[in-house]
Structures are given as structure tokens and as C-alpha cells.
């Protein structure tokens, strides 16, 4: 199973990705988590991405594509993955196509949630998890970036009939059940 989750910050991608990866026994690949670990470790990658992340801006397509290519080359990703946070731009979507050439089709799930609920969830997360980019002004920037750079991907995948849109404004287990149903019905490229 090669699943890509797309949705605005706070839509529940991370929660769903964790649950689905566990159920399907494939890795949950979160580019946000990989980048946050790099920042925390003080690596060269971390230094390169720290500023863009704290402003809610995107990290460059080159860095992201290299990072994902490297992660997909790991043994545990050979049978499948749940990708959370990539692609986020059309360029990244083209790069993913190249990476998937030998692997087969991907399924893409869009998770929707109203903006006021997103802001509510993220301000709660800021308190619980201490993520600096959940600060209100940064959240607004992340939402702007989502609408500008990432939401065009939805049309890109819809044209290929690889996309299903799911209402994320419900209990997590209901969302998981619906994603599972849709994916098992066989959405794919
Ligand atoms: P969310 O989806 O809640 O906004 P993530 O944890 O997925 O948060 O990402 C946090 C930050 O990491 C983003 O705001 C961005 O700076 C950076 N990032 C993660 N994935 C990508 C990507 N594919 N392209 C560019 N930047 C990324």
C-alpha cells in the first residue's frame, strides 16, 4: 500500500498516518517529523531548514526530494508506506512520480477540516507539544502556504482519479475507518 495524505496543518494527517501505518504494517513517513528531528540534532540539514520551518514556510523542493528519496530507499519502505507531508508542491509531486516509477501506483487521500477547527486544534497542540510553528501567526502562514502551494496538487491527482476526499472533522477512528474503506475499494493511479 502506497498512500499519500494531503491536508492543511491540523487536519489530522499525522494521527491518521500513524494509525494506518500500524494497521498495514508499513512505515509512517512524516517529513515534518524527519525535519524536526534534524533540527533537534543540530545536523547540517537541521541548520538549513530551521528558519523556514519556524516561519511556516516550505523547505526547498531539492532538500525535500533528496530526503524522501533517501527514506524510500530504506528496506522497510519496499512493501509500502504512508506518506505524510510530501508532496507539498507540484514539483515535489513530479519528483514522487519519478520515485514511484518502479514501485507502482499511489493512492491519495485529502483530509478536510474547517479553518476555525484547524486553528483550535493547533493552538491546543502548541500547549501540549510545544511546537513553535503552532504559534498563531505562524499557523496563519502555514495555512496560506497550504492554499497557495499544496492545494493545486488536489486537482493534479483528481485528474488521474487517484484522489479521494474525506471529512476529517470527526472522531479519529471514524476517519480511519473511512480511509480504510475507500483505499480497499481500490483508488489508485
Ligand atoms: P503540518 O502539516 O501540520 O503543517 P508538518 O509537520 O507536516 O506540519 O510540517 C512542518 C513544517 O515542515 C512545514 O511547515 C514546512 O516548513 C516543513 N515541511 C514538511 N514537509 C515539507 C515538504 N514536503 N516541503 C517543504 N517543507 C516541508
Overview of the structural elements:
The protein is built from 9 helices and 5 strands. α1 (13-24) packs across α9, α2 crosses α3 and α4 packs parallel to α5. It is globular and about 40 Å long. It is of the alpha/beta class. The chain has a 5-stranded parallel beta sheet. The chain starts with a strand and ends in a 5-residue tail after the last helix. It has helices at residues 13-24, 31-41, 44-55, 61-72, 90-100, 115-129, 136-150, 152-159, 172-184; strands at 2-6, 28-30, 81-84, 107-112, 163-167. Bound molecules: adenosine-5'-diphosphate (ADP). The site of adenosine-5'-diphosphate has 18 residues, from α2 and α3. Adenosine-5'-diphosphate binds next to α2 and α3.
Termini separation: 12 Å
Helix content: 55-70%
Number of E strands? 5
Ligands in the model, by name, code or SMILES, are: adenosine-5'-diphosphate
- Morphology call: globular
Biggest β-sheet: count, sense, barrel?
A: 5 strands, parallel
Any descriptors?
single chain; 189 residues; 9 helices; globular; alpha/beta; 5 strands; binds adenosine-5'-diphosphate
Could you give a short description of this structure?
With 189 residues, this protein is of the alpha/beta class.
Topology (SSEs and partners):
Blueprint: E1 2-6, H1 13-24, E2 28-30, H2 31-41, H3 44-55, H4 61-72, E3 81-84, H5 90-100, E4 107-112, H6 115-129, H7 136-150, H8 152-159, E5 163-167, H9 172-184
Parallel strand pairs: 1-3, 1-4, 2-3, 4-5
Bound molecules: adenosine-5'-diphosphate (ADP).
